[in-house]
Amino acid sequence: MAASLWVAPRPARHDRAAHATGRSERARSFAVRVTVPARLGAWGETHKETTMAFDAYDRSIQLLGTLASLIKKLASCDPDLTKQLRRAAQSVPQNISEANQRCGKDRRHLFRVALGSAAEVASCLDIAVALEYLGEPQVAQARELLDRVRAMTYRLATK
Questions:
Q1: Does 18 share its domain with 82?
Q2: Model confidence pLDDT, tens digit, residues 14-33
Q3: How many structural domains are present in the chain?
Q4: Is the confidence at residue 40, as pLDDT, over 90?
Q5: Percent of the residues in the chain that have a pLDDT greater than 90, as a whole number
Q6: pLDDT tens, position by position, 118-146
Q7: Residue 22 and residue 56: Cα distance in Å, rounded?
Q8: Which domain, by its residues, includes 138?
Q9: What is the pLDDT of residue 99?
Q10: pLDDT of residue 26
């Protein structure tokens, strides 16, 4: 997949290269939409990694939706744990999204940060169950999604 960004127009100049291409003054003055691969490299390997990264992002957003009802229940019992769970859960898709726009070691680092945040979400759920704020059946679906997100981010972080 590719990410899109808008590039600001450069001031029009009268030079030989612009004249040789036959582009008019008006055509050079409009903003240009540029598509940039999510990771530098050959398109074959980029497409596979980007697809997994977007799947990890989609599952992490789905995890946030699953955690929303648990966070509401937990808020009345332990506000500090609720705040920690919310911050960690929000950090997972944010870091996956940012990593998907980076390359090399920086990319792997951000996927590792997302993996660490997912582990923090798991520990918050463990604490909530251990302190009997939430029951095990209530957190079962969240744990399944969390395991999937952790597996995908681990794979992305170790490439």
A1: no
A2: 545 545 555 444 444 433 33
A3: 2
A4: no
A5: 61
A6: 999 999 999 999 999 999 999 999 999 99
A7: 45
A8: 43-157
A9: 93
A10: 46
The whole-chain average pLDDT of the chain stands at 79
Same-domain pairing of 72 and 125: yes
Choose among 107, 124, 114: nearest CA to 90.
114
Q: What is the DSSP string of the chain?
A: -EEEEEEPPPPP---HHHHHHT--HHHHHS-EEEEEESSSS-HHHHHHHHHHHHHHHHHHHHHHHHHHHHHHHHHHH-HHHHHHHHHHHHHHHHHHHHHTT--HHHHHHHHHHHHHHHHHHHHHHHHHHHTTSS-HHHHHHHHHHHHHHHHHHHHHHT-
88 and 111 housed in the same domain: yes
Q: Answer whether residue 43 shows pLDDT above 60.
A: no
Q: Residue 95 and residue 103: Cα distance in Å, rounded?
A: 13
Residues 94 and 32 both lie in one domain = no
State the helix-helix crossing angle for 104-130 and 43-77, rounded to 10 degrees: 30
70/52 same-domain check: yes
Same domain as 103, residue 26: no
Within 13 Å of residue 74, how many CA atoms lie on the same side as its CB?
Answer: 26
Q: Are residues 134 and 64 in the same domain?
A: yes
